[in-house]
Structures are given as C-alpha cells and as structure tokens.
Amino acid sequence: MTDNSHIYNDVYTGENLNRVAYPMGGMGAGMICLEGTGALSHVSLRGQPEVMNEPLMFAALSIKGNIPISRVLEGPVPTWKIFGTTASGNGLGGTDYGLPRFTSASFKARFPFGDVHLSDSKVPLDVNLTGWSPFTPGDADNSSLPVAALEYTFQNTTGSPIDAVFSFHARNFLSTDTPGESVVTVKNGFVLSQPGSTEKPYDEGAFCAVVDDPETKINPAWFRGGWFDALTMVWKSVAHGQALQAAPISEGLPSPGGSLYVPFTLQPGEKKNLILRLSWRVPETNLHIASEESSDEPSNTESEDACCAGGCACQRTHKPWYAQLFPTIESVNAYWGKHYDRLRQQTAEFTACFYDTDLAPELVEAIAANLTILKSPTIQRQIDGRLWCWEGCCDTHGCCHGSCTHVWNYAQALPHLFPAMERTLRETEFLVDQDINGHQNFRASLPIRSDTHNFHAASDGQLGGIMKVYREWRISGDEIWLRRLWPLVKQSLDYCIATWDPDHKGALFEPHHNTYDIEFWGPDGMCTSFYLGALQAASIMSEAMGDPQPIYSELFEKGIAFMESELWDGEYFIQKIQWKGLHADDPTRGQAWNINYSPEAMALLQEEGPKYQYGLGCISDGVLGAWISAVCGLPDFLDSVKVHSHLLAVHRYNLKTDLSEHANPQRPTFAAGRDGGLLLCTWPKGGALSLPFVYSDEVWTGIEYQVAAHLMLMRSVE
Fold this sequence. Notes:
The chain is of the alpha+beta class. The chain has 17 helices and 26 strands. It has an 8-stranded antiparallel sheet with strand order 6-7-8-9-16-13-12-11. Strands 5-4-10-15-14 form a 5-stranded antiparallel sheet, covered by helices on one side.
C-alpha cells in the first residue's frame, strides 16, 4: 500500500515510487516503461501488452579508483517484484535484481518526460535520468514513432577528477524459437534482431540502442555458455571498469545480447550528458480480431475505399503504421538521430505549455497521467494510419477489442490533441462498421474491415458517435468531411429511432444495449440523455447540410419533456423499468450475453422485471449524454437545475471515502477496503433490485472523471 504523503505534480519517493511505470513510445508503436526506480519494464513491442515483461536490460555506472564503485543505474528493487511475481519462489534467476544499485531514487513526471534522480552516499556523482518519447499535438506521425530516449546526466560533486564508464546492456529479448537471431553493431550502438519465418512472420523484430558519443565502445559478442554465464561476464566488465569492444559473432551460437560502453572523465563540478536513443521495428503482428463469421465485404458504399485506404488491402493481420514508413531498423535509428533535437524541442514546448496553468494540481496530474495511455498498447495505429483501440490492457493481451464506442465515449483528449486521428474512428464507425440498415457494430475488427451484424447495437455508443461527428466537424471546420458522412449519420439515427423509439415517444423504451454489457428495458435518464444529444446534433447538422429533418427536432422536444417529467424523481433522474407491451420479445427470448434465465431468475422477472436494471437508483452516468453533448460543443438541452441536482445527488450518495463496509460481489479490486471511490449506482430511497446491472457496485475511474468534469461545468468545484 502506498502512503498518503505524495504531493500532486511533485516528486514520488518511498512506497509511492514502487508502482510507477511511465510509458514511452509512440502512439500505436509499442511501449517501454521507465519505472520510478530508473528500471525499464513492461516491454511491449509486438502489438499487445506484455505488462510483466522485464527483460534483462539495464544501464550501469563504473567509477574507477582505489576502491572501484559499480552500480546499476537504478534505485532499490521494489519488494513486490521479489516476492510477488511469477517464479519469484525460485529466485528469479537471470534478472539484474542481485546487482549493486543506488540506495535511493525519486521520480517526477512532466508528461511526456519522466525524471529520475539517483543518490548513494558511496557514489561521488549526482545522477539524473530523463526518459521521454516525442509527443506533439497536431503531429500524429512524429508522435507515433517507435522510439524512446534516456538522457543521463552525471556531475562530479567532489574536489578531484573522476574516471568513470557508462554502459548499457540488453539481452536479445526479441529472440524466439525461429532461428537466425543476431546482435550486430551500428555506429555507436548495437542492434538486437530476430527474423520471421513463413509460418511466423510476426517473429520478426529489431531493437537498437545508440549513444551519440565518439568514445563509445560496442560489444555485440556476449559470453556464450550455460547457467548465468552471460550476465556474470557482463557484470565483471562493469565491476572492473572496462569498456569492451568486439566484432559481431559470425560462427556458432548467436550472441545472447549486446553492450555499449562510454568511458569519460569529470573534473570537479563538471557535468557529463549522455543520450541513449532506443528504437525498434516489429513490422508484423499476429493480431487478427473479428467474429468467427466475419466478412471482408464492405458494409456501406464507401467502405471498400475506407477499408483499403493506404494500400492495406484488408491484410489478414495487423501491421503497425510505422512499418510502411521505415523499411529497416537502421532507417528508424537514422530518423530518430537526425530529428532528435527538433522533436525534443517541440515536445518540451508542449510540456511547458501544458504545465503553465492555474488549474488545480490534482487536475493537472490526473490529465497528465491519463495522457500516458496514448503511449500504451491500448492504442493501435494500423498501416494506413487509422486508429484502433482496446478498452485497456490486461497483463498479456488487450482487454475488450474494437475501439468500443460506448467506452471511448468518455475519452476527450484525442479529438483535441490529434483531431485527424480521432476522425478516423468516426470513419470506421460509419463507413465500415455500419450496415445498410444503420446498425452499427460497437466493436471494430482488426485489421479494420466490415464484420457480421449479429448482435445488438450499443445505444450509448451509436448515439454518442453522432454527437462526436458534430464535434469533429466543429473542431475541423471540414464541411466536405461532414457531407461524406452525413447520409450515414442520418441512416444511423433513423435506425436508433426505429429500433429503440419506434412509437416516437422521445425516449428509448425498447431494450437497448449499453456500456454495462446488458440491456436496459424501458426508458432511463442515462441513455435518453444520449438520444436527446444525438437528436440535437443531427438537427443542427441537417440544417447545415441543407437536408432538414423535422422529425429530429420533434422527437428532441418531446424527449426533453418526457425526461424532465417522467424520469425525474424530484432529485435525480431514474429508469422506468418496462418489459411488457413492447415490440421486443420478452427478456427470456431476446438476444443477450451471459444472462441465463434460470427458474429462479424467472421468478425474479415476474416480481421485479428483467435482470440488470437500475430502476429507482441514483446512477452516476445518469446524465452522461448531456455531459458528452456539452463537451462536443452543443447547447445544453436539459433543465440545468435538474442536471445539477442529479450530479449533486451522485456526489452525495455514491461517493464513498471508505469502502470497508461496502459489499461488492462483482469486480472488487478496482477499489476495495479502505479505498474511496464513486460507486456506479446506489439506491438511497429504496427500491434496490435483487440483481441490478452487473457493474453497479464497482468503481470506475472514467465515470469518476466525467462526473467531476460535469460538476465543474456546473461551477461546483469544491
């Protein structure tokens, strides 16, 4: 457990340091994390997360003298790694955890820069490390490079000269069972490489480490042997202050890894700056995600062009965007070296601008922390440049595929930082994932292509997408782009009306799938707010397109009146559960996922209605559509007093400072025990259901953020 001493936007130390893993790498280009200790971990270069992947890869410092000093350029190994990781019970052989290292470390984040300070009473140098990778809003391509940098600074704090050697070492962590791996030299560095094969083209990969210092020595020929021979011999070179240089191995077994060394001398008070540039190229992946019955046939008239734009030809597996730009690892390294200074300056300008604010420190830290997600494997960018995203990352695979529309509704950074990339999500939704009836798959295939339409559309996702088309048009001012999508936007909204509001009541009465992976039966404030926001956005766009749709305005006005009267309990918006008298089949026969109406569930159906509703509950997402509408730049449409009242009720009833007495039979580890958090729903006035919607007892950070943001829009800051 971390302590509570951390100051927002300030230095992480002690226990607060031990879980810091700061993503570096381009958007959709792979990730290496800089830990708070200075270690490199979470190495995920093959298109999917490898959260526990911490290959043997470290920098070291050797100080010569009567009593030589050698240190891994990292702070102490966190206790959780020693006792809590896979195979820790067998000693974790092959790691660098047993090597001498600095006694203390601290970390400070200034997105996308992470600064580590190392100290040790026995080391007569002041040591700092800055890790970063390019991030410049508006420049998506240079923000999607497969690169990172580690900038080391050493300052002599004594009154005497110091002779030292900096070194960096990496086992060939790209090695697979496909033969042909190698370690070769480039100017001032080395390349770890692994070829692919006909059967496994996705094995191909290369990783480059380079220091721009003329004194750099390269050893691509590690000792070959058994047991712990390689690391033992590498550390001997460090301990003896050596700077080894050798030719690549050309015969026999391949080298296990590569090293570079930079000897230097510091006069009293003098500084030495070394830039370690890392780059990689993994041009193929084995990612192929779609339903079993997927089709490569286009869904809409423009989808074929959209699917194969940029020459992707609907390839079978995902290829990262950078693969078509850089044919070799050498070309990545060359580009990184040539443009390093410019990219760093531009990135630093963004950082300076971002932190030059009078926003509360906790807000700045929260925003910056979430921006790091853009550098994680959550983000993929396929070879034609289009964006594709997971909902998040599990340890070894992406979690819930397909730029899920009802999940990515909450995200607001990309459309403002990289609007052209965000527009590719709308193009996928409407040009590829929407069929001729207007049904929209809420999960896109990878590579992006059309798929079968054999499950519910997501009401909040599809309606949210209409508001976001308005937002993208508003940000870009691109009327040609809107004209291209407008017929499909209209098709989409017409589908929503026919499917969920066929009687034109202005609310979603028919069962409607949503972000909780279930269907709400009967009208509810949450999804009706999406409906009203989409109707308003479509009405405005229809006028701009010279294609007025009076029905949208009529339903919009009717829906406002319905929501503010029938779904308002005097304090917050609710759901009116209804499952009889609808056009849909009853819940036991309709299409659903993991519901299972057993005999006991049938009894509940008769008594309470369908499983997984919220009824009279105070749901945190209850006016989410109104918030999304507002941040898309649309006029407010609900009574602001009632919206404010709902949000204050959410704050009053759902925010818990201690969850010790809260029972959560669902997924408890998002927040549990003495943690605080905002529950998704509570029933403060009674009417709690036996089986409410399946995530109701959980805490979701994204919902906390949208509620907080909406309260701030309503000028409720404290």
